[in-house]
Amino acid sequence: MKLAGLPLAFALAFATPAGADAPTPEKIQATLFDAARAGDAALVADLVRAGARVDARNDAGYSAFVLAAYNGRADAVGALLAAGADPNLGDRRGNTALMGAIFKGEDAIALRLVAEPRVDVDARNGAGQTAAMFAAMFGRAAVVDALLVRGANFALADAGGNTPERLARGQGNDALAARIAAAVAQR
C-alpha cells in the first residue's frame, strides 16, 4: 500500500507490511466510526476522501455523525457536516444526532446543531419525540431557548400525548415548563 503524501494519522491507521493487502472498504468504513467516536476530525476527513460513506450506519444502527455528537466530539461533528453528512439521519429508533447530544448533555454540540440550517428541529423519532421534548425532559434550558428562536414546534405531542411543557412539568421543572407554555401561547 502506498502511503506517501497521505496525512500521518491516515497513514498510521492503515499501515500494512510490504506485500499485504490494502485496507478494504469495510475497514475504511469501520475506522470512520471509530474516528468519529474518538473525535479525530483529521482522520474523519481523510477517511471520507478515501471512500468512507459519510451516512453509512454501523451494525448497531448509528451513523458516524450520531456517534460524534453523542460522544461530544465537536471537531468530528464539524468535519462530518463539512463532508455532507445528513444531520437528520436517525438511529434504529429514529433518534437524531441532535436528540443524542441533548440526551447526553452535550449542550455546545446541541446548540451548534440547532443553528445548522440543514437540521430539521422538528424531526421525530419512533416514539414521536422531538428535540424540543428531549430538551424539556432533560432540563436543557439553553437548548430550549435556541429551539424556540429557531422556530421549533413546542405544541407537538409524542405517541404518549406528551408535549415539551408536560415533560418539563413531569420532571419537576416548573420554571422551564412555564417558559415553554408562555412561548407556545405567543405563537
Provide a compact summary of the structure:
This protein is mainly α. It is 53% helix and 0% strand.
Task: Please outline the helices and strands.
Layout: H1 8-13, H2 25-38, H3 41-49, H4 64-70, H5 74-82, H6 97-104, H7 107-115, H8 131-137, H9 141-150, H10 164-170, H11 174-186
Helix pairs in contact: 2-3, 2-4, 3-5, 4-5, 4-6, 6-7, 7-9, 8-9, 8-10, 10-11
Overview of this structure, please?
- This protein has 187 residues and is mainly α.
- The chain has two domains: 8-86, Alpha Horseshoe (Serine Threonine Protein Phosphatase 5, Tetratricopeptide repeat), CATH 1.25.40.20; 98-187, Ankyrin repeat-containing domain (Serine Threonine Protein Phosphatase 5, Tetratricopeptide repeat, Alpha Horseshoe), CATH 1.25.40.20.
- The chain is 53% helix and 0% strand.
- It is built from eleven helices and no strands.
- The chain has helices at residues 8-13, 25-38, 41-49, 64-70, 74-82, 97-104, 107-115, 131-137, 141-150, 164-170, 174-186.
- The radius of gyration is 19 Å and the shape is elongated.
- The model is unreliable at 1-5 (pLDDT under 50).
